[in-house]
Amino acid sequence: MRPRMLRYVDWALVAATLGLVLGGAVVLYSATRTFPDPWAFVKARAMHAALGLIFLVVFAAVDYQALGRLWRPLLLATLVLLAAVDVMGRTAQGAQRWIPLGPLSFQPSEVAKLLLIITLARHLDSHREVTSLRQVVPVLLHAAVPILLIVQQPDMGTSLVLLAILTAMLFAAGTPMQTLGGLLASGALAAPLLWQMLHDYQRRRLIVFLDPTSDPLGAGYALIQSKIAVGSGQLLGKGFLQGTQNLLRFIPEQHTDFIFTVIGEELGFAGALVMLGLFGLWLWRASIAARQAKDRLGMLMAVGVLAMIAFHLFINVGMTVGLAPITGIPLPFISHGGSALIAMLAATGLLLNVGMRRKKILF
Amino acid sequence: MRTDYVPPLRRLRVLNAIIIALIGLLVARLWQIQVLHGAEYLRQSEENRIRDYTLTAPRGVIYDRKGRPLVSNRPAFTVAILPLELTHPARVLPRLAQLLGLPVGEIQQRIEANRDRPFEPVRIRRDVGAAAVARIEENRMDLPGVIILVEPVRHYLYGPMAAHVLGYVGEISEEELGQRRDQGYKPGDLIGKSGVERVYESVLRGTDGRLRMEVDALGRPLRVLQRVPAIPGRAIVLTLDLTLQKAAFEGLRTGDQRSGAVVAMDPRTGEILALESMPAYDPNLFAIGITPQRWQALTRDPLRPMLNRALGAAFEPGSVFKIVTATAALEEGIVGPTSTFYAPGYFRLGRWIFRDLRAWGTVTFLQGIQNSINVVFYTLGFRLGGETLAAYARKMGLGEITGVDLTGEIAGTIPSPSTKQQLIGEPWYPGDAVNMSIGQGAVTVTPLQVARMISSVANGGTLLRPRVLLLAHERDRTARPADPVVQRSGLYDARALAVLRAGLRAAVERGTGRATNLTRVAVAGKTGSAENPRGKPHAWFAGYAPAEAPRLAVVAFVEHGFRGGLAAAPIVRHVMEAAFPEGTATVREAGR
Question: How would CATH label the architecture of B242-591?
Answer without folding.
Answer: 3-Layer(aba) Sandwich (3.40)
